[in-house]
């Protein structure tokens, strides 16, 4: 397949690397203003869970091919929700054709998504991977599956090609009842985790904060309570949570049971620990928290633990930014 990946971010680059290794032609559309606009290659350190559930560590080189064509079999868009409009405008302006795999969190309704795509075929998915890019080095981990919209719910003519694409990389597919609802629920779970972690930890040292969270039954118990609340925010949008019992089971258990279970899981599952410690984008984490927070407030949902945690985390982040020199603050915001 010919694949265009938008940008050189962690998720798109991780899967772009896997697609390229499987023999597909992968190109990247990178903004001229990006610090990686001229990148020709990246060092890759990957903890790979596709064949080993504990993850096997390897190092490699990824050759970055920049966009040369105007038509692709698939365009992979894995960007923050606030950038989707900009990305679609860039594709239209550049005359770039091809169906889109929207591979990220999206809190909007289906009608909003249709407006953003403006008639372009779109398939909803969600990655099960994570990492960070520092300089010319990608450090990442990947699981053996991704989440993908069900065939009978997707309006996507090239569905079989996408199935074959992931299959060629040794990645299985899991199909929730409704992909958009599942994404909302996953974002709500992340918001519960992120708000509590940021309230207790250092908003600028996310690795240390994640380690602190994963090792504390007390903090994990608070996470469970916050996630119970954020899941109710999702329910307030008309989602039947009974359809997602598997995703929510551990959070419905008494905290005296669920918190130790989560602590044990983090201690034993290196891949999950790795994702938690590598996700270092504080602004992205707080954006997800704020999105869920604003929805809960607007819908009148009672969620005192989550609201209090997010407000404390946001206050901490604001105070941190105010103490930074103006030039440093500007550089961070631009990046």
Automatic annotation (TrEMBL):
InterPro entries: KPR_N, NAD(P)-bd_dom_sf
Domain Ketopantoate reductase N-terminal: residue ranges: 3-123
Domain of life where this protein originates: Bacteria
Protein name per its UniProtKB record: 2-dehydropantoate 2-reductase
Lineage: Bacteria, Bacillati, Actinomycetota, Actinomycetes, Actinomycetales
